[in-house]
Amino acid sequence: MTDITELGIAAIRDGVASGDFTAVEVAEAFNANVAAASALNAFIVETPEIAISMAKAVDDDRAAGKDLGKMAGVPIGMKDLFCTDGTQTTAASNILGGFIPQYESTVSANLWKAGAGMLGKLNLDQFAMGSSNETSAFGNVISPWRIGGGNNAPLAPGGSSGGSSTAVSARLCPAATGTDTGGSIRQPAAFTGITGIKPTYGRCSRWGVVAFASSLDQAGPMAHDVRDCAIMLESMAGFDPKDTTSLDLPVPNWQAALNSDLKGKKVGVPREYRMEGTDQDILDSWDQGIAWLKDAGAEIVDISLPHTKYALPAYYIIAPAEASSNLSRYDGVRYGMREVPEGANLQDMYAATRSAGFGAEVKRRIMIGTYVLSAGFYDAYYTQAQKVRTLISQDFKAAFQQCDVILAPTTPTASFPLNDKNKDPLSMYLNDVFAVPASMAGLPAMSVPCGLNKDGLPLGLQIIGNMLDEQSVLNAGLAIEERAGFTARPDKWW
Amino acid sequence: MTKKYTVQGATGEFEVVIGLEVHAQISSQSKLFSGSSTEFGAQPNSQVSLIDAAMPGMLPVPNMECMRQAVRTGMALGAQINKYSRFDRKNYFYADLPQGYQISQLYHPIVGEGEIEVTLDEKDPDSATKKIGVERIHVEQDAGKLMHDQHPTSSYVDLNRCGVALMEIVSKPDMTSPQEAGAYVKKLRSILRYVGSCDGNMEQGSMRADVNVSVRRPGEELGTRTETKNVNSIRFLMQVVEIEARRQVDLIEDGGEVVQETRLFDPNRMETRSMRSKEDAHDYRYFPDPDLLPVELDDAFLEECKQSLPELPDEKRERYENELGLTAYNAAVLTAESETSFWFEELLAQSVERTGKSDKDLAKQCANWLLSELFGALNKLGVTLEESPVSPSQGAELLSLVADGTISGKIAKDVFEIMLETKQGAEQIVEEKGLKQVSDTGAIEAAINDIIAANEDKVEQYRGGNERLLGFFVGQTMKAMQGKANPQIVNEILKKKLDS
Amino acid sequence: MSVDKETVTKIASLARIAISDDEANALVPELNNILGWVDQLGEVDVSGVEPMTAVIPNELRMREDIINADPLTGGGVRDKILANAPDAEDGFFAVPKVIE
């Protein structure tokens, strides 16, 4: 019998449904992989018993002849930004140390309803702020990938969904949830050779997801292939009246409509994405991607997104501004950490608690956000950034007059060693330069593995679609997946 | 014209400039952004949702009714209604504010400029009126409550109020005396209660005012203002204006300078003092709430709001005077509070139904009875109109007995006393106690014949020109008839007999 | 635009984050590096451009005024509200005494 942990969502679900193996067997197999992988530090909390009991429920349903959900019997990893009823949720921050939510996020509830089970809560950059998973209060996540030739330097799994990318890549779980504010699904997916999609803003409810930047945050799946992403996104998405930015639209059956024949489709290649500082390997992979999509029948068109270079600086005003306000609720009064120095008054308690509870990167972003919103600077920074955001959005609107999807690299580099960039925040921020524009415009975007660089590290290609057109993104992703034949995987060293 | 209000300092007179920010709790079942109840007086933290407590990942969903009530209030003030408005976050840290920001409306409020006309002396309906400008109305969340007396070293936080919808009604700095400020709040409260957008209950904190006061010598520029927070009665409000104006004048004359700051009123010490706890919270870093899209109202919604507005106090007062023929004073008193006017209108309608007479014929009688008899009785009992032991329908029953001549006005007073005591209906009381007025001319004539016969001397005097003696004969007749004779008939027969 | 140590201290105080002198000194160049970089936004001609309000066209949905229509967003859940409190007494959250 094949090793169950080699399988993805579709294969596990079908295997459970047809009785090839039970959901409990699946859960046990992945529980074992999780337990054996502590060196990767992908999980903050492991929940093997929950995985087993949820699997048992699926087996019982099957035995009773009940209809099984889209993800019945598939155990997944849950990024520790999703509040889970009765299971500690921390956003990888000490300020939420020991916090046990008394409620379940809409997205995780949707997944459980579809029959998925929970293997544990996945590590991430603290409050999803970071691109290397080095800002977690629970330690760095280590990528399962290594540079060949005896170089064992620990590499970054990307961020902020670094626990998710590592866990899927190392087959600790067949799929995991991610959240993407400025590339947090796509960049770690690219770094670890897996597939991840951020849907249109509003497809997935934000209710019960620890907020980073409200106008940008969007949940999405991270899995082995395009089909698995489609299945899982269908399970996560859907209208939620508890989130006023949730889109009141039916969830399409993306998986059933998957089609890698791109005849009649136009693929835009944005000239502004040819930036200085991009690795030659990345540029080569982009050219290869263009050739693959041409091969799939698509017409390639040269497009322009003139405000691309301003997307990242605008993002670093808007996201910290929103975060500075969203994170004000962590004050030591109602939950989480509380620090009360001797003789402290209420305001001293706030300052001490927040100083002790937040990590350095979180504090840095709160400081930037507080500054750009403060009296006298609001218009120059925040209003200006929101106007630039409008222009970025208009760029995309114009581009989608000429093409159906846009092809670009996901990141300017492959994974880098831990401690390489964390001393210089700005160089870390720049790793999201290709991912952020789609976030700023709320558009669906996906990263699909396309090959390895000269060091043997995975690279990803990014497909950006028009609003609500996840289908075209998935289809183009599938066309690349079929041609890339990406089968590389990290050698097990953990 | 009322005399201009000034504060006399050692070096001359000062004028006072007052602006008010009234926070009115919007009447709604559930909170502005969550489904928890707004009911007053529940167990601590029992009416708190995960949203109100700002748990991680919680999101606000606005309550349509709150927006509707704000729009209706704006319409009642003749104000500009903004079809596009937006919620902003006002960021500051305090233990009664779980989110670390209050969701409010700074840049685009739902209601723009309007005005309120106030009568400067309510006892005198002919006194001068003044229009006070309303700058804007915006909708926002209330904060929770901190309690300091339960524990020696801790303050306790109750979030039941947290997230309850408020309207902040911001006046222009158009008021120049404590009386004007008092009259403004009184009138505003009356309008809110008519509209039904706020119960106006100041004791329970449903309405409270931040009082902005500055002083200046006549003709000078506006002085620096202070803001005294959370004043919760009209009497206190007027006191705050007086005390704060006096403090500022004294300060300026002593060579000091008024500091723009937030102050607190202490009614026990009759002073205002600086609020230390909010001192460094001046930079609120307002920005549009990214969890909420702009509020866009369509014409159908606005039309529905407009259609649902009741007749407002100024319109009512005019109608009472012009169509019902009431005095200006009565019309003013009856319309000052919505309950009084609703009670009056119900009383009038029921009386019309019972007697078949027109409302114009009955209005004066109803108004007089309500304002003197009923209010007098309620005063004695120490209860409000809402707690009245007598309903409008029972009042109408009593008044119609007078109107159709079944009992006299004098007997009616006795019947009313019994009604208050026994809660019985007027008709039943009149029936059981045999108080029915006698209109039988035969019986009355017989009694009058006896009295005339027994008082020959007085008859002579009357006929000799002492017409005042008619009263004596009426009194004797009524006494003989145990007060139940119809006074009109008594008068008629007496005159006929005496004059013949 | 750039910040000095005094501004950094003021911002930290507004944000209720206690920082030491050393931390303030370290934050000055860090923040200036980032702020200097975002200053390039000033180059963009935004005349006639409205600031973004909704990234995807959508209208604000409102709820009916019904108490506890959805148990997830309603009240009457005091145990859940207080479950994680660092200090709760008699049904209240407790904080260091506040003097108003």
3D structure, described in words:
The complex is a heterotrimer of chains A (494), B (500) and C (100). Chain A is an alpha/beta fold and 494 residues long. Chain A has 15 helices and eleven strands. Chain A has helices spanning 9-18, 23-35, 48-63, 106-113, 162-169, 186-192, 226-236, 280-295, 308-326, 346-357, 360-373, 378-402, 425-429, 436-440, 470-484; strands at residues 43-46, 75-79, 117-122, 175-180, 195-198, 218-223, 266-270, 299-303, 405-409, 445-452, 458-465. In chain A, helix 2 packs antiparallel against helix 3 (48-63), helix 5 (162-169) packs parallel to helix 6 and helix 9 (308-326) crosses helix 12 (378-402). The two termini of chain A are 24 Å apart. With 500 residues, chain B is α+β, with helices and mostly antiparallel strands. Chain B has helices at residues 64-76, 178-195, 234-253, 299-307, 313-322, 328-336, 338-355, 359-381, 392-403, 409-422, 426-433, 441-454, 456-463, 470-480, 487-499; strands spanning 7-9, 12-25, 84-85, 88-91, 101-104, 114-119, 129-141, 145-147, 154-158, 165-171, 207-216, 226-231, 262-266, 271-274, 287-288, 295-296. In chain B, the strands form four sheets. In chain B, strands 1, 2, 6, 7, 10, 11, 12, 13 and 14 form a nine-stranded mixed β-sheet that branches. A three-stranded antiparallel β-sheet of chain B has the order 5-4-15, with no helix packed on it. In chain B, strand 13 (262-266) and strand 14 form a beta hairpin. Chain B is elongated and about 95 Å long. The model of chain B has no long low-confidence stretch (mean pLDDT 92). Chain C has 100 residues and is mainly alpha-helical. Chain C is built from three helices and two strands. Chain C has helices at residues 5-14, 21-38, 78-82, and strands at residues 88-89, 92-96. Chain C has a two-stranded antiparallel sheet with strand order 1-2. In chain C, strand 1 (88-89) and strand 2 (92-96) form a beta hairpin. The radius of gyration of chain C is 23 Å and the shape is flat. At the A-C interface, helix 9, helix 10, helix 11, helix 12 and helix 13 of A face helix 1, helix 2 and strand 2 of C.
